[in-house]
């Protein structure tokens, strides 16, 4: 018997080629294709999505003013017309009172640019550490900047027209949303299961609080910054105070990095006044920024934004990478909204342990849903949505009352 034969003398078995069959389930593949198609469609419609987000931001910002009018027996349509008319009048007044002077002062700054640049380069050349920067400034010519701006004027004008068009579209869309609020809200509640109406109404109410508080806070703090810089530069007899103040107020909108632009602009404008004036402006600007971070921001923003510093930094980085300046401006309210959704939807995070207050919150949720089911039984979607919003508003006011909120510190991220 040979070595390659079996013990019974039979020849060895012959095995054919192995066939491997890969089966892909249709469900996950279809979901993946729909996700890819949705992301592609969203990327194509990103300007439209941004206009919608801007419209919702406007709605959240002006809704408290409209409710204030309603509480004083003013019809909702009349209140909306008054609020938007007031915004239009204020916008026109601001534009007519600042833009002409701003253009004149900007032109004056451009005319003085060679002298200011030479003076700054001379001051920087006095130190070995700043000597390379002084040499770099001497090599820069205003004519090069002018030619660069002229070559890109068409592109900039096209972008400016597009931005104005999107802003007007957002304002008109916000007006339609506010006028047709009940119908739109009823349609939203119609597609959501009735057991989630109370939670949906709380999410909408908290979104309005977050977005409206953030935007109103940004406007107020930017206005205070612009007024402070204008008064400071005027007291120091510095020319072009209005142009620098407007730039500082606009730069203050940017979280964290806005402080460098606003303080830097004021200090750069003070260079023409000498070292003493520069020192005074620098010290007063730093004091004001500290006052803004420690006093103004917590009082103005209130409980609208409650974000840890790490979340703020990560949100700003992600927003700037994805959408640039617009992403930076929207990063904080979006992050606050996401954290609010995690809280309101009762999402259990890994490692989180149930606390006694979690049980109390769940019991309040059950009581609110039971009350809503009792009061909204048999009603159409619009009336049921109004009842859900009423119940959520009462609970929101109860939770945010001074006795319930206490003296908890507010972390607004030094915006």
Architecture blueprint of SSEs:
Elements: H1 26-44, H2 46-71, H3 76-124, H4 131-139, H5 142-151, H6 153-179, H7 181-191, H8 197-235, H9 241-251, H10 257-269, H11 275-301, H12 309-344, H13 356-375, H14 381-399, H15 402-405
Helix pairs in contact: 2-3, 2-6, 2-8, 3-4, 3-9, 7-14, 8-9, 8-11, 8-12, 8-14, 9-10, 10-11, 13-14
Describe this structure in words.
The radius of gyration is 30 Å and the shape is globular. It is mainly α and 415 residues long. The relative contact order is 0.08. Helix 8 (197-235) runs antiparallel to helix 9, helix 8 (197-235) runs antiparallel to helix 11 and helix 10 (257-269) packs antiparallel against helix 11. The protein is 77% helix and 0% strand. It is built from 15 helices and no strands. The protein has helices spanning 26-44, 46-71, 76-124, 131-139, 142-151, 153-179, 181-191, 197-235, 241-251, 257-269, 275-301, 309-344, 356-375, 381-399, 402-405. Mean pLDDT is 75; it is low at 404-415. The protein has a domain at 45-142 and 154-179.
Give a brief description.
This protein has 415 residues and is mainly α.
Extended strand count:
0
Counting helices, strands and paired strands, the structural category is mainly alpha
Oligomer: single chain
Q: How does the major sheet shape up?
A: none
Characteristic key phrases:
disordered C terminus, 77% helix, mainly alpha, globular, 0% strand, 415 residues, 15 helices
